[in-house]
Amino acid sequence: MSFLTKKLHFIIIILCISNQIMAQGGSSWNEHNRGGFTFQLPLEPLIIDTLETVLFGCEVDTLLSLQVHLFKDARFNPDEPVFLEALNKEENDTLRAIASIFLLATNSELTELVQITTNEVKGISLGIKYLTLASNEPYFTFVRYYLYEGRFMSFTVTSAESDLERGVEFKNVFFNSINIIQ
Length: 182
What we know:
There is one protein chain. By secondary structure, the protein is α+β, with helices and mostly antiparallel strands. The protein has helices at 3-23, 81-89, 94-106, 164-176, and strands at 30-34, 37-41, 46-50, 53-61, 64-71, 109-118, 121-131, 138-148, 151-160, 179-180. It has a seven-stranded antiparallel β-sheet with strand order 3-4-5-9-8-7-6, with helices on both faces.
């Protein structure tokens, strides 16, 4: 075997190992601590902190992204007609009402909806499927919502349907890293 062939095999092996690490959610997730909760992201995020809202944006590549939104002083107006209707429909469950409005606003198909608890704080986990406006390609978004001590927290993983297996792997690592500090 020539030196060039050996070198090419070595490069292919390294690329395969790198892809396997990324498929397993990466090996070096970084922990972030903000506003009474911690979570991990696979890359350093873009952080935008403005007024009472903080956004952590992490685009892994063109097929996969993760986001965290923290609304420090979340107030929901029960007199607003759309919110009131959603609250009534969801038997006064604020998180389910928010999820219901989210589904309505995105014209999405619900793929999962589960009540969750993290460190004794109730939350909701949902999955949706939708078509992008730009390309009409199917995408999945997985969301965890928490409303705790006046803060609304949203954790999101979005993946192209063509990369859904990796998206679910990232979702599992990301969502399992969430820790609410009481």
